[in-house]
């Protein structure tokens, strides 16, 4: 409307059953080649755009006034109420209203008299800067809500739906946007707690979960087992077969621990070639049995990567359980570390 008004109206060629504006003086113009053009002022163009959108079940709007040139543009009750409010200085007006069988969101904003308006409305007694009318927008909220029931998030966003058609279109894409944001957040959270090489818990998350199980076991009086694993002569594997081979060994060992541990046990990579498994509700005998089972599987495991014939590795393990006088997980880790080094000193490939 503002664009049209800035040019004092827009001429279009009369075709078909197009009718000239009967409320304007000499709206038509004939070109030298005989074609007839008629002037479309802002209000007429706005009405035709509204009709175009309404025929496609989108929304409809129009310009109305307390003193319309065209009686068909006279305000209804809602619009008259809004126009009176604008005369008192209110900037906008809106409410929900039943029209026919559907609920509509009705919005109205004032239009002020500009110099370009006086060409059509000069005889109405308006002055520049005065409120001469308003633009009334009607959106079928009932239809929109029915279409958005498939997406709960978008319905929540619809609760704070803004007052313009542009934002309504944006809300259609909000569901997908939030889904992508949530997926990105889950990916970041997983990245923070996961060792990127082995796919199991990293040191920080491992110790955090260990602390949780330690507090739970102390509170409920439950046993808690801990095994510290260290791959034997791992540096020699890297030196002889390369770091790709070493990485493959770490991944296969982590996969073995995940396979042997229960879903509610805690396992992770402490650092380098050291791993921790915390066995909940498990005493010393069961903890030692678990460690021995893992050690045996590693001893039987044949590692192969491209360009390197199969080679074997072994692992040493230190076993301990939570004691009544333990005040933190550091006490348990210290004993597990001592036991693991005792296994190393006793010849490696064993459980102590």
UniProtKB/TrEMBL annotation:
The keyword Glycoprotein does not apply. GO terms for biological process: cell adhesion involved in single-species biofilm formation; negative regulation of bacterial-type flagellum-dependent cell motility. GO terms for cellular component: plasma membrane. This is GGDEF domain-containing protein. Residues 222-352 form the GGDEF domain. Coiled coil: none annotated. It holds the Pfam family Tll0287-like. InterPro entries: Diguanylate_Cyclase, GGDEF_dom, Nucleotide_cyclase, Rev_trsase/Diguanyl_cyclase, Tll0287-like_dom. GO terms for molecular function: diguanylate cyclase activity. PROSITE patterns: GGDEF. The chain crosses the membrane at residues 152-173. Keywords: Membrane, Transmembrane, Transmembrane helix. Gene3D superfamilies: 3.30.450.290, 3.30.70.270.
């Amino acid at each position: 409307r503002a664009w049209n008004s800035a040019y004092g109206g827009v001429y279009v060629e009369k075709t078909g059953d197009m009718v000239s504006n009967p409320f304007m003086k000499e709206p038509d113009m004939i070109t030298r080649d005989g074609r007839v053009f008629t002037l479309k002022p802002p209000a007429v163009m706005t009405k035709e755009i509204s009709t175009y959108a309404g025929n496609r079940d989108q929304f409809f709007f129009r310009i109305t006034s307390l003193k319309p040139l065209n009686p068909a543009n006279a305000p209804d009750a809602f619009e008259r109420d809004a126009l009176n409010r604008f005369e008192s200085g209110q900037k906008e007006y809106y409410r929900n209203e039943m029209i026919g069988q559907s609920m509509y969101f009705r919005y109205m904003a004032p239009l002020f008299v500009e110099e370009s308006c006086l060409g059509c409305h000069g005889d109405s007694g308006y002055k520049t800067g005065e409120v001469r009318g308003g633009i009334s927008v009607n959106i079928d909220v009932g239809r929109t809500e029915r279409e958005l029931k498939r997406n709960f998030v978008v319905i929540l966003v619809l609760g704070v739906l803004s007052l313009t058609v542009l934002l309504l279109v944006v809300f259609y894409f909000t569901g997908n946007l939030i889904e992508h944001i949530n997926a990105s957040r889950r990916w970041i959270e997983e990245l923070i707690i996961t060792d990127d090489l082995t796919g199991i818990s990293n040191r920080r998350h491992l110790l955090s979960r260990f602390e949780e199980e330690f507090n739970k076991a102390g509170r409920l009086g439950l046993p808690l087992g801990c095994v510290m694993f260290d791959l034997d002569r791992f540096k020699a594997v890297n030196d002889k077969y390369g770091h790709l081979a070493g990485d493959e060994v770490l991944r296969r060992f982590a996969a073995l621990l995940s396979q042997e541990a229960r879903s509610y046990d805690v396992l992770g990579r402490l650092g380098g070639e050291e791993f921790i498994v915390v066995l909940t509700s498990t005493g010393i005998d069961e903890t030692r049995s678990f460690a021995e089972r893992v050690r045996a599987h590693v001893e039987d495991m044949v590692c192969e990567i491209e360009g390197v014939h199969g080679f074997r590795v072994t692992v040493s393990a230190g076993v301990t359980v939570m004691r009544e006088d333990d005040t933190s997980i550091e006490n348990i880790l210290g004993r597990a570390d001592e036991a693991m080094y005792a296994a190393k000193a006793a010849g490696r490939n064993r459980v102590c």
